[in-house]
Amino acid sequence: MIAANLGFPRIGAHRELKFALERFWAGECSEEQLQSTGRELRKAHWKLQAEAGIQHIPSNDFSFYDHVLDTAVMLGAVPSRFGRAATPDIRTYFAMARGTRSAPAMEMTKWFDTNYHYIVPEFEAGMEFRLNSEKVIDEFLEAKALGFETRPVILGPVSFAFLGKCVGGQANRLKIVRRLLPVYERLLVELGAAGAQWVQIDEPFLGLDLDPSERMMFTRAYGHLGTTLGRPQILLATYFSGLYENLRLALDFPVSAVHLDLVRAPEQLLPALRYVPEQMALSLGIVDGRNIWRTDFDRALAQVSAACDRIGPHRIQIAPSCSLLHVPVDLEEEPGLDPELRNSLAFARQKLEEVAFINRAGTDNSPDITSRLDESRRIRLQRRSSVRNSEVQARVAAVTDDMLSRRSCPSSRRVKQAEAIPLPVLPTTTIGSFPQTAEVRRSRAAFRSGQMTTAEYEEFLQKEIEKTIRFQEEIGLDVLVHGEFERNDMVEFFAEQMNGFAFTHNGWVQSYGSRCVKPPVVFGDISRKKPISVTWSSYAQSLTALPVKGMLTGPATMLQWSFVRDDLRREEVCCQLALTLREEVMDLERAGLRVIQVDEPALREGLPLRKKDRPQYLRWAVAGFRLATAGVSDQTQIHTHMCYSEFGEILPAIKEMDADVVSIEAARSGMTLLNEILPDGYSNEIGPGVYDIHSPRVPAVEEVEHLIRKALKIFHPEQLWINPDCGLKTRNWAEVQPALRHILIATRRVRGELMQTKLRSTLPLSETPNQENWPYQACSCT
Asked: What is the DSSP annotation of 448-490?
């Protein structure tokens, strides 16, 4: 058998890539210094994998920003607003991801159901696809020169086409795939000429529900690529889902091997063994590439044994379920973890060791193998017996349907909230956080290390909060926030004050570009130690007569953005989180906060990739949000926030959440995201973002005004809130201050016109909203 890997984390064990990127963007290092950091990381990662016993080591899994963006540049899919240079330089590459003063960034959204963000390709009319970059070949040759024989990784043509969007009258995706194939064919030939024996082509879209035309697209693409003369052997990699009805389709392709995610869909192994052609190998993804718990070797070896018995070990590759991009680099960097918990974990480096061990153990029953298997069983048994809390379990069992419902319907609540919280038309707010400056980060670090006393740190936070409140008052925001300066991360901050969570020191995972997150670890039953956010939210409210939002992270997002225990259903973990947050919401209301925002940006992210699995997930995820928020009075306004998602598929679920106000990302897409909401209508209030906070661009007043007017073509003025796309923590004050001032100027312009025309007259828009969708009808509740 062969021990293989599909991809390795790019950021480095100590986030070397993050810091190099940010120095480059700040003009503090040269392009050559940045490239040198990339070379050092690639060399270290290839060496680590080889030493772990991996035989098929990936190359081209490294990226300075995003592998989908890399593919777009490689194929010449560079939008015209960034110029059409024969070979885009690195500044153009970063401009596509981050935008410039004159060219908005390309859209960004979630990579399937992960917390990784990819840059959305744009297909314009007249775009000519060509082999525009030699990165794939260069990195293969770079590894070869260092003595490492690698398996280059490329994103497949069909998945690339599906991940993109057509603009400006561009042809449909089937035609795009046809035009891409000659470029892929040339790339395969050049890789073969460079000496590559294998190439890994990732086609995660094969794991989705496909219609007949989409299945035909795959058949034609791989019928073409599979017969390319001079190409390396092809491993077709699928992950995040089972192939199911697409299994026979994939096994019919003229490729040398197919990778199966047997963590997400172990049931697909037996039919794959039944139908796999004699000349084809199977790559068994049996080490979890998405979570950090040690592999159950007994389960994994049972799968290996079944495969060996059926097709023989010579046709089997052992691998993680997907790229290890989604887990931290090395558990050896975590000496401070509780020893019992640490024994139960495996990061990327340890997962490679597990792959190599399974590869050996599948055909070896020597004493050292037996000893390690016994140790694995002991660790799993010990963990199962030490993480349950009878009080938490009793609370979960006592949840009733009544606890999931507000006291009145939305239209009745709207009247009461308008009396309790008087606001103008098009009320303005932000999503929650303000810039986490170097001073804020230094003070937090000093407090945690004991170099700053509690009194000194609290005085510092009070000053930051007051400064932020005064700024918001001065520019004229209607609903304020306290800025979240005490918070390191929107999930980790809350998790730190709950039982059942553990935390790493260096367990960083890339979210996008240089942005990394450090997910907490859910290892036991969850409860609250004490009130979490009340102190600082109450202090902020005491500084102003304007309403201040209490800010919480919702249960589904805390679940999705953590490494979750594997010994309990996710549904039950979500319920535990919801009950804990319900206590916090009620405490905020008792403290006088009349606007409470419970963010659920990961609700859509957690949506199963297969449609048949979605209703059950949405049922318990929405129930978790309602359980967390439904205990408040009608006068208290519940907000939620979602970003970088396709909302059309979950619009019924968003309605079922019963939030009074939903804010969503919309600026980067130019409000086109709202078209997903239009067909079914949305009767509650909504805040489509007008400022893309993931770009350093400061939007002009006219740009913001244009976005507001586009939103008013879809929603009535009384429904609309004006806000940025997301929190402002990653931006600096030099960007945030003018951006928010521009938002307020644009809002006042449009608001003035609305007031002058008494809200229902002809506006300088294309049309008035459809009367049939008018949401403010008489309340139907009794």
From this structure: HTTSS-HHHHHHHHHHHHHHHHHHHHHHT-SSB--B-TT-S-T
Element (H, E) at 412: helix 410-420
Radius of gyration of the chain (CA): 27
Is the Cα torsion angle 369, 375, 376, 377 positive or negative in sign? positive
Q: How far is CA 691 from CA 154, 512, 642, 709, in A?
A: 33, 18, 14, 14
- The H helix count followed by the E strand count for the chain is 26, 21
**Which H or E run includes 33?**
helix 31-52
Q: What mean pLDDT comes out for the span 170-187? A: 90
Q: Is pLDDT at 172 greater than 90 in this prediction?
A: no
Contacts of residue 461, Cβ cutoff 8 Å, sequence gap at least 6:
485, 486, 536
Give the span between the Cα atoms of 167 and 675, in whole angstroms. Answer: 15
Please classify residue 60 by burial: count the beta carbons closer than 10 Å to its beta carbon, then call 0-12 exposed, 13-18 middle and 19+ buried.
buried
d(C-alpha 564, C-alpha 575), whole Å: 13
pLDDT confidence band for 770 (50 / 70 / 90): very low
Average pLDDT of the residues in 596-612? 93
The strand pair at 281-287 and 257-261 is best described as parallel
Collapsed DSSP state (helix, strand, coil) of residue 570? helix
Query: What separation in angstroms does the CA of 647 have from each of 122, 507, 600?
Result: 20, 30, 13
Q: Return the sign of the alpha-carbon dihedral for residues 376, 378, 382, 385.
A: positive
Hunting for tokens 């408040």 — which residue is that? 632
Angle at 353 between CA 36 and CA 500, to 5 degrees: 95
Contact 631, 657 (CB under 8 A): no
Structure tokens at 317: 């590759």
Residues in the chain: 782
- Written in H, E and C, the secondary structure of 327-351 is CCCCHHHCCCCCHHHHCCECCHHHH
Report CA-CA distances (Å) from 242 to 206, 262, 263, 269, 288: 9, 8, 9, 9, 14
Query: Taking Cα atoms as reference points, which of 282, 286, 287 lies closest to residue 311?
Result: 282
- Provide mean pLDDT across the span 159-174: 85
pLDDT digits (tens, 9 = 90+) for 709-737: 999 988 899 999 999 999 999 899 999 99
Known active-site residue 326: no
Which two three-digit tokens encode residue 214?
């989409």
Q: Give me the mean pLDDT over the 75-102 stretch.
A: 89
3-state secondary structure of 498: strand
Q: Is the pLDDT of residue 758 over 70?
A: no
The whole-number average pLDDT for the span 192-202 is 98
Q: Look-up: residue for tokens 């885009």?
A: 88
- The amino acid that residue 301 corresponds to is L
Question: 737-743 long-range CB contacts below 8 Å, 24 or more apart?
Answer: 737/471, 738/698, 739/691, 739/698, 739/699, 740/430, 740/475, 740/477, 740/691, 741/475, 742/698, 742/699, 742/700, 742/701, 742/704, 743/428, 743/690, 743/691, 743/699, 743/704
Predicted TM-score (pTM) of this structure: 0.89
> Which DSSP state fits 142?
H
Long-range contacts of 450-456 (CB under 8 A, 24+ apart): none
Q: Annotated catalytic residue: which of 326, 694, 716, 742?
A: 694
Burial of 348 (0-12, 13-18, 19+ CB in 10 A): buried
Q: Using CA atoms, how far apart are residues 147 and 501, in angstroms rounded to an integer?
A: 42
